[in-house]
Backbone:
């Protein structure tokens, strides 16, 4: 249960207003450790000359993952750019891990990151994401180089300012997707919308959280008229709708609203 009274200015921040990360290696449930170790082992085997480090983020890193329902989200950091062949191998590896560990996780996702791009100070989003949202489980922890960070409009915009591109991509995918892919795309964009909504009010609220239900409540504090939409999105994350028309129309209308209003709302200070 969410203790809404705790979601007040300063929540998730230290006394100086800096973000206090809500992820750590100690929070990773032991049930996911074998899958993480196997992922690292396979990554080292396939990319031993290019692999720099591996990170866990999302619900597993926060310690609130639900067995069989939550994804294991990984970032593989590489020293050099992967070829199209290597990217295909990585995709195949993730699919194999997903199948082999279906009794533990819903899916294993492996995102790609590159060392030079990530450590570049101008790439503020990459720096902050790694520092505040990721847990290093193999190699050098680049997150130790960055931060601390305050909740600023720049953080919000860099985290979710791509909502228009995400909307276009999702609507196109939904049109010709299989039933199973439709569910996956529905869950993914529902999460994206909630995170985008939260980013719109992040700076003014001065509340830091990466938990979807808490992000939802923070947004509703500022946009109570969106409460029913938020509840629908949360329901679709738990149990994706099979009503293609309803999903498409809600995503289109809410995605366009977020795209139109995101920047102005995100820049409102507390």
Residues:
């Amino acid at each position: 249960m969410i203790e809404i009274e705790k979601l007040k200015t300063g929540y998730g921040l230290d006394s100086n207003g800096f973000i206090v990360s809500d992820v750590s290696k100690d929070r990773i449930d032991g049930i996911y450790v074998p899958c993480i170790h196997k992922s690292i082992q396979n990554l080292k085997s396939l990319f031993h000359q290019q692999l720099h480090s591996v990170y866990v983020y999302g619900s597993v890193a926060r310690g609130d993952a639900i067995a069989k329902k939550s994804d294991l989200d990984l970032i593989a950091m590489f020293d050099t750019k992967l070829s199209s062949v290597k990217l295909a191998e990585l995709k195949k590896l993730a699919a194999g891990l997903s199948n082999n560990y279906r009794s533990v996780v819903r899916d294993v996702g492996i995102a790609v990151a590159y060392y030079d791009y990530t450590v570049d100070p101008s790439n503020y989003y990459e720096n902050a994401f790694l520092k505040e949202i990721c847990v290093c489980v193999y190699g050098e922890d680049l997150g130790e180089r960055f931060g601390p960070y305050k909740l600023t409009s720049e953080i919000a915009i860099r985290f979710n300012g791509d909502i228009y591109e995400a909307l276009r991509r999702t609507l196109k995918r939904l049109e010709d997707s299989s039933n199973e892919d439709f569910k996956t795309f529905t869950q993914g964009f529902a999460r994206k919308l909630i995170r985008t909504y939260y980013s719109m009010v992040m700076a003014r609220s001065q509340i830091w959280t990466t938990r979807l239900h808490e992000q939802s409540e923070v947004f509703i504090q500022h946009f109570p008229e969106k409460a029913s939409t938020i509840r629908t999105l949360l329901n679709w994350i738990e149990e994706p709708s099979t009503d293609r028309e309803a999903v498409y129309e809600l995503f289109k209308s809410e995605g366009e609203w977020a795209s139109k209003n995101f920047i102005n709302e995100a820049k409102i200070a507390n």
The chain has a mean pLDDT of 95.
